[in-house]
Amino acid sequence: MKVVIIGSGIAGLTLGRLMLQRNIDVVFCERTIGRNALGHAFLMHTDGLNILKEMQSNTNVEIPGLSVDSFTLKRPDGTDVKRMQLNSWRCIKRTSLIGFLYALIPAEKIKEGRAFSHFIYEDEKIVAAAFLNGDIEYGDIFVGADGGNSKVRELTHGKVKYTPVEVKEVVGVARNPELAKVYKHKFIKFQKKQVGLSFGMIPTAEDEFVWFMQYDPAIRDVPDASPEELSEFCFSITSDFPPVVHELLKSNDFNTTYPWNTRDFDILPSFHRKNVVLIGDAAHVALPFTSAGTTNAILDAKVVMHHLDQTTNYEEAFQKYYEERAEAISNHITLGRDLKKLFLNPPQDDDNIPVPLIAIETNNETFRKNKPLQIQYFTDPICSNCWMIQPILRKIALEYDEFLNIEHRMGGLLPSWDNFDRGGITQPSEAAKHWEEVCAFNEMPIDADIWSEDPLSSSYPPSIAFKAAQIQSTEKAVLFLRRIKEMVFLEKKNIIKWEFLEDSAFDVGLDSARLLKDIGGKAKVLFTKDLELAKKLNVTVFPTLFFANKNGGQHTMEGQKTYEEFEQVIHTLLPDVEKVKINNDPKFLFSKYNRMTDFEFSFLCNISREEANETLVQLYNKGLLDKYESPQGIMWISNFKGVKG
Question: What pTM value is reported for the model?
Fold first, then answer.
């Protein structure tokens, strides 16, 4: 089988490399002579990066680019709107990625100076591609990878109707070592509140940035501008943006910068005609707000190759490629259009401003609510018994996740020390003694010195912060609660203080800027509702868990209980349930829980503390784990590559 790929951009080169790895005969036909320098840079997530790693296998060619670890959205006056951690994103210059792909492909396979003209048919079947320079290339399969203005697509599917240009972009690459020291690995974006105008900057290397300016041309435009006119336009339209924007623009070479008209077209009814298949921008174009174009091109190539591997019938493979990719592509097109509307008509509520790069999280609320066993868990960030049952809850979650939903609620353990008396505890020193007693009879470490060094005046502020986290994400809120508990029980950090709440939010992927806003507003209302419910249900002990199945069966569990008691309740309410056997591979466990004590690891693996410690130390010595050592015990922290959470 011989494959003729028309276009040697990212989509075409990726598919060709995957085919060459399978010893398929491939020829690349590129209209330009020399590598196309158009396009500046883009962000790529794990889906695309994993395919690059697959193509890189058994070579010395390195994947280019620089990791991007955080995103901050600001107003031009410097006010933070959003701030959050990013996982597994990389900014790559287009020329660098093209160079990476070229290095993986034999030079003789790429035929330059071939601008596509038409197909040659025999008996109604395409047998060759003809080019304007007179060349003809025969083949069995033809791939249209010739970009958004695809001539191949026009011949196979007819002309598409592009949407009108309502947003434009100016994109450039600027070298500025001083700024790079400050903003390394950080994606910063400034966005106007009243009109469609934003400026973003992302590092591509140790001393270099790609920058982009998105704007509504109805505000002001600069069509067919010279470099000098384009420079003046960029400086003037961002006149009230902060100095860092102008400093970066001063570093830019406007001879290589150009305005870009953003547009898209509806999803095609298919991505192939007989033995011709379209991939990348030739098959679909979405507006740039989703930052998914390059990753989609790479995914197209991977999916086409996967289905060609599965069958000798190429038309069947191409149809399966469409079936697998069409829904995701259609969603990206729709999302891009929705984001364009929001950009042109900015929402005045900052909560409704979308975050670029972040895939829309699946709303699992309905799924969680439909699980057969619902559990309301009343807890508090400084409850020592709630800290002690962490290993049990983690094990139960791994074994019975399919069947149960735990809904965390705050109980309000410590309003303040004024007239406080709970179980004989009336002051911080007595809280310290209680923690020491709890620790003596359990295996989870606690450092009670916080009550003498920097005692908390109330548990309400971190409880409200947890409710603020729940507004953003149920899953991340649980991670947030765990992290602030680690801070208070092991690290002796006063989690009333914003600096620690902010760090915890950022660590687990929450938007810390929004968290701060919600702490002062919506979260207080939600916390009050939790307190009212706790009072209504007569919750006086922490932890308290209310179990309920779909048939009306109920059970209440108060105080610290054993793993066996938890299991007994689950099996009483769900008699036919079978638990999942836990995968004891450390990499798997640390992908689920990226911080674990010795005891938690031994408990989940069902091995002795000595065996657990030996394994953990070995992983630490290999650089796969980091650790936080407290006088009472060690918190092991995942360093496994690609591990999240």
Answer: 0.75
